[in-house]
Design brief:
Protein name: PB1 domain-containing protein
Pfam families: DBD_Tnp_Mut, PB1
Largest sheet: 2 strands, antiparallel
Number of helices: 4
Order of helices and strands: EEHEEHEHHE
InterPro entries: PB1_dom, Transposase_MuDR
CATH topology of the largest domain: Ubiquitin-like (UB roll)
CATH class of the largest domain: Alpha Beta
Helix content: 25-40%
Radius of gyration: 19 Å
Strand order of the largest sheet: 1-2
Domain PB1: 11-93
Oligomer: single chain
Length: 184
């Protein structure tokens, strides 16, 4: 039995919300197994867990759905949203002239330089009160090489910003992104 919801986009901030039903909250952590998660969803929505497909959006990406098909995928989702939660509590300074994340690539000006000069505070991996430090360190290891060098290309500014944020968590540094305008 499919559970249909209509997802709508908030025009002010780009966040998603849905209509057509009640909202449910489930506890997820790094120990949650996919079969247990599916079982709890099946009980909540009175449907079969066998035919269930679970998908989610990455933080900051409202276009690509990620499928959860094994325990590792579920743990990765928990990590993405765990770090997103902690990064929201940090101080972020971005110039108002920055390119919005929803701007298509072909509208971006490639002549604009990006300067990293002021800090964005990030939460150290061990500072989270309910963290399992070793598991978070393993998650951060996945992000250590997400930025490979000068010739690396990103499709959008949002993709670059997300990669830089993950890279900064993995390497424990702070940064600031601001758009530079050409001086004529």
């Amino acid at each position: 039995m499919p559970i249909w919801r209509e997802f709508l986009t908030n025009k002010d901030d780009g966040s998603l919300f849905y209509t057509g039903g009640e909202a449910y909250a489930l506890d997820l952590d790094h120990q949650t197994q996919l079969k247990d998660f599916k079982h709890e969803l099946a009980e909540t929505f009175q449907c079969s867990a066998d035919a269930m497909a679970i998908k989610y959006f990455l933080p900051g990406n409202r276009k690509t759905l990620i499928t959860i098909s094994k325990d590792k995928d579920l743990k990765r989702m928990v990590n993405f949203f765990f770090f997103k939660f902690w990064s929201l509590s940090s101080r972020t300074t971005v110039s108002e002239a920055a390119i919005p994340s929803d701007v298509p690539v072909d509208l971006m000006q490639t002549d604009d330089a990006i300067v990293l000069d002021e800090p964005i505070e990030t939460t150290p991996l061990g500072a989270c009160p309910f963290s399992n430090e070793e598991k978070h360190r393993r998650a951060a290891i996945q992000w250590e090489n997400i930025i490979t060098g000068v010739d690396q290309r990103f499709n959008t500014f949002a993709e670059f910003r997300e990669a830089l944020h993950k890279y900064s968590i993995a390497h424990g540094f702070t940064y600031n992104i601001r758009k530079m305008t050409a001086i004529a």
